[in-house]
Amino acid sequence: MAANDRERWDRRHAESEKTQAPSAFLREILESGWWSLAPGRALDVATGKGRNALFLAQRGFEVVAIDISAVALEEARKEAESRSLRILWRQENLETLKLPVDSYDLVVNFNYLQRSLVPQIKTALRAGGHVIFETYLVDQQAIGHPKNPAYLLEHNELLQHFREFRVLYYREGKVTEGGVAAFRAGILAQKPALDSFKKAT
């Protein structure tokens, strides 16, 4: 495990607020009634203090939540216990992680961009499973953090990453969440039947 990354994130989480509200994009998708995502086995990538994992568990999903920070995961674990929610918390270095194949009905990824992990996210989904992915656009450099282009999506890049999936919902541009404006791209996409996915890849 990358000790420097782990220590950096531990410090950041120790100094930050307690568990925040779930992502507005995730809530929009699961609460709008526009799409039918039945509870199943879900993976929350880079969960942090577990705000989205907790939300999914409350809605009946069987959640596995992974993050590099032990500090964040411990706080998330305590919050889950206080709500009587069962979530599998795993401390992992995402840069060396190997996700199991055909194991999840839903994968969510928020505020984290590791391009090398996208192929694993796609193969970790079962046929017919869904991905919900949202993070910052390159335009974010002009108004705030992050500024490193390695962690920022180019325009339409997220669509390209999931081009062989069925895109159910996509948005890109300036959005406001919790009173804070940011440039973001978000997608809800469904993995096609296994034969179709193998042909596409």
Amino-to-carboxy terminus distance:
30 Å
Strand content bin: 25-35%
Q: Count the strands? A: 7
Radius of gyration: 16 Å
Shape: globular
Structural class: alpha/beta
The helix content, as a percent range, equals 25-40%
Report low-confidence residues grouped into runs of 5 or more.
6-10
**What's the helix count?**
7
Taken in chain order, the helices and strands follow as: HHEHEHEEHEHEEH
Largest sheet: 7 strands, mixed
Averaged pLDDT, please?
Answer: 90
Order of strands side by side in the largest beta sheet? 3-2-1-4-5-7-6
Write a structural description.
- The structure is a single chain.
- This protein is of the alpha/beta class and 201 residues long.
- 30% of the residues lie in helices and 29% in strands.
- It has helices at 3-15, 24-31, 51-58, 70-82, 118-124, 157-161, 194-200, and strands spanning 41-45, 62-67, 87-91, 104-110, 125-136, 166-177, 180-190.
- The chain has a seven-stranded mixed beta sheet with strand order 3-2-1-4-5-7-6.
- It is globular and about 40 Å long.
Task: Sum up the structure in keywords.
201 residues, alpha/beta, 7 helices, seven-stranded mixed beta sheet, single chain
Gist of the model:
This protein is an alpha/beta fold. The chain is built from seven helices and seven strands; from the N terminus they run H-H-E-H-E-H-E-E-H-E-H-E-E-H.
Question: Mind sketching the topology for me?
Answer:
Elements: H1 3-15, H2 24-31, E1 41-45, H3 51-58, E2 62-67, H4 70-82, E3 87-91, E4 104-110, H5 118-124, E5 125-136, H6 157-161, E6 166-177, E7 180-190, H7 194-200
Parallel strand pairs: 1-2, 1-4, 2-3, 4-5
Antiparallel strand pairs: 5-7, 6-7
